[in-house]
TrEMBL record:
This is AB hydrolase-1 domain-containing protein. Pfam families: Abhydrolase_6 (PF12697). Residues 17-259 form the AB hydrolase-1 domain. Belongs to the AB hydrolase superfamily.
Amino acid sequence: MRWYANVREVGGGDATVVLAHGYGSNQALWDKLVPALSRRNRVILFDWDFTGGGGGAEHQEEAEEGRYTFGRFADDLIALLDDKGMRGAVLVGHSMSAMAACIASVRRPDLVTHLVLLCASPRYINSPEEGYVGGFEMAGIDGMLDAMSSDFGAWVKGFVPNAVGDPASIPPVEASFLAMHPGVALEVARMIFLGDQRGVLGAVTTPCTIVQVAGDFAAPPSVAEYMKSRMTAAAAADVVVIDSVGHFPQLVAPQQLLDVLESVLRGRGGGGGEGEHGAAGEPVAEVAEADGGIDITA
């Protein structure tokens, strides 16, 4: 059973762009970007099964604990790229899909020519003893998961406005969150917010553009700088900070994000270069082996 569904292909051209949405959203949240991207590129979209539109009734049942893993999402990204006969794609991973994209690129570097890691975070929980700032204390994550478990609808109503940051963009995000089965949503949230994917960063060799939003409470720009510092094997690891708010720039700041993507596509395969909204990263000094870890081979 695959965890992706509703695969859609639009446009055409020499470059292939794969848009992988994040937690609580679905492929419709890319709609503001697709018309421009598809004029000169082949664009692939899909839904993860937790969206509520991902397939059979079994996807909407209570999820067993531990069923969802980043490695499994990465395997399904690989399967999608293989199924569509893609090699050298530009893979755009939003939020949780960014880390799945990193793992996929390590397992199958032939499939991806450039990673765009949008609002990514390898670890949401602070680790003061390691000097790592993920943005959340453990108590806050525990409280969030408890709130989801007790009244998922009420949690969505409180969480989404903070995550989006723009009142006009709240309705579509709220609707996509509420389309998830509460049990499935809770298990995917556990995977995301309790996980630690920092260990994969040093194994990524594919050129990366790490795109963060200045006013994103979930994944602040400091996390992007941390990721860049750990991606010492990547052909390039550039940070671009969009001057906007929230965790969904494809809705709130679509033109700024489109500018970044078009800059990547103009120079795809070479990494580096200076984009419209940020400079290419300077070479970073060698750092210690990445913390945390995930088995990137299994």
